[in-house]
What does this fold into?
Amino acid sequence: MLGKDNNWFTSFAQGVAHVTGRPLTFLVAIFLIVGWAFSGPLFGFSDTWQLVINTGTTIITFLMVFVIQNTQNRDTAALQIKLDELIRVTRSARNTLLNLEDLDEETLERLRKDYVRLAEQERPVAELGRTRALPGKPAHRKKAKRRSSRKTSAK
It folds into this structure.
């Protein structure tokens, strides 16, 4: 959100996420840990020997938290924009569901409970092979009929 000055970190975070998410990187990490463990007798299992792995893993973990959070924030924002666009262009969708991420916890919980209730109502109907629309909204089949009738009347 800070503009172009932040592009270096975004590029860095994407690169690190790409590299660290590969199986080869995991195998390298395993190899390093096994190598460290086998070097224990060589260093007499000293405090310094233990401090090396503890310090190294702590630093890497601390830095990875920021990289992962940056990547997660971008992915979540992109997904949210895509979902908002789908809601916006879907005729029977409730546009009040746009930008839900900006609502307070109480409102989100109330909406979640509404959808849980709708899902519970829909389950018995779905078992019969039918669908039910949201309250005040047309069912999918009706929507499809309207679309097909518009296409035929436009010809």
Observations:
- The chain is about 70% helix and 0% strand.
- The chain has two domains: 1-89, 96-155.
